Amino acid sequence: MKKRTHRGNPRGGGGPTPLAETLGSLFAARGYARTRALGELEAAWESAVGPDLVARTRLGGVRHGVLSVTVAHPTLLEELSAFRKPSILATLRREAPGTPVLDIRFRVGPVES
């Protein structure tokens, strides 16, 4: 009779891998965590700036803790960067803990509706 072999548990012991570890690896491999974090960040952005300004802004990526945001015109850039940035950062940190945002960099550019 042939002896069965099992895939090894990365923690050793040769037993089955816990479901939480398997699902965590699957989610990481498929990018689900990143997708969920992006959705969380978008919802937090809307909460921070309101529905009127969401339509006039476009979120970019977060790189090294800096969120890139494109805004429709220079006046809006000035309002967000000079007057509302601290409160926006506080809201993003509170409502999107999965994406650490240390700063926001605004630029003027085309924003699709």
Proportion in β-strands = 15-25%
Distance between the termini: 67 Å
Order of helices and strands: HHHEEHE
Strands of the widest sheet, in order across it, are 1-2-3
Low-confidence stretches are none
Q: Mean pLDDT, nearest integer? A: 81
Q: What's the helical proportion of residues?
A: 40-55%
Describe the largest sheet: 3 strands, mixed
Oligomer: single chain
**Number of DSSP-assigned strands:** 3
Counting DSSP H or I runs of 4 or more residues, the number of helices is 4
The rough form would be described as elongated
| Structural class based on helices, strands and sheet pairing | alpha+beta
Cα-atom Rg, whole angstroms? Answer: 21 Å
What can you tell me about this protein's structure?
The chain has 113 residues and is an alpha+beta fold. 50% of the residues lie in helices and 17% in strands. The protein has four helices and three strands. It has a three-stranded mixed β-sheet with strand order 1-2-3, with helices on one face. Strand 1 (57-63) and strand 2 form a beta hairpin. Helix 2 (32-49) packs across helix 4 (74-95). The termini are far apart.
